[in-house]
């Protein structure tokens, strides 16, 4: 029966030639594809040609120690799963290396070669599970993004229909009522007041339709749309005449993708509405600016703070804000202090 073809590629890094040969032979006997490196520098060169599925790393080498090699890999943005090989007396160093991401460690002793295949198999199984989980999470985020994008598109379509369809028809009927009022002024004076009432009701309906359409499509497509929409949001809160609300934003900000701008606006809208409804605040500040990592948005109030029950069990509004942040690749944080208000921050992770 032919031997199975090796599928996983393992790189062994050790400056002990004898141990290097023995470990390589033991793993090749298990049908792994094995490459070897006699130093940290040779390992970096080898990984420039092919990134292994798993690295078996000696902590002590002449040109650089294992910890230094791991740091060099991170600087190159190479995420290589690895197992540490260490001698007696270095268990503490091995445990510290586990904090740097090592999957496991094995001791250089007489039982190493017998133990090594099972350690490798267990580590590779864990790597495969992590990859499968990461793939499933990526698929979940992609589906979430598609669902939210479809929802936003439908909201946009409904808003456009309200503004361009129903709003225009109502305006046309209002104009007809205006003309009708003049026509019947002399013939039927008793109907004039009724026609005037119809006109007023139609004007109110037109105004309500515009408010609804603006709420469904709060962020337009122009480059400065989000700043403009946030300014309009703060103006609406100020119109309540019981809460001061201001926007702190540079005069110009970089244009954003419509999807990102839309989600940031909805986060600000939800945070502001929560403050108005629940915080007993007298002032709300919306801060928006560019950073080297992406747009940064923060909403803070000077209210009573968030109840402890809400911090432990966030409501639908907070969960939706967190979901919107995840969809655009950002992180939402909420901090609350009793009698000092709530601060909601949406920011992107530092770019490497």
Describe the protein's architecture and organization.
This protein has three domains: 101 residues, 3-Layer(aba) Sandwich (Rossmann fold); 73 residues; 124 residues, Heat Shock Protein 90. Helix content is 56%, strand content 18%. The protein is built from ten helices and ten strands. Strand 3, helix 3 and strand 4 form a beta-alpha-beta unit. Helix 2 runs parallel beside helix 3, helix 5 runs antiparallel to helix 6 and helix 7 runs parallel beside helix 8. The protein is elongated, with a radius of gyration of 32 Å. The mean pLDDT is 82.
By DSSP (H or I, 4+ residues per run), the number of helices equals 10
CATH topology of the largest domain: Heat Shock Protein 90
What is the average of the pLDDT values? Answer: 82
What do we call the CATH homologous superfamily of the largest domain? Histidine kinase-like ATPase, C-terminal domain
Considering the chains and any ligands shown, give keywords for the structure.
elongated, 5-stranded mixed sheet, Rossmann fold, 352 residues, alpha/beta, 3 domains, 5-stranded parallel sheet, Heat Shock Protein 90, 10 helices
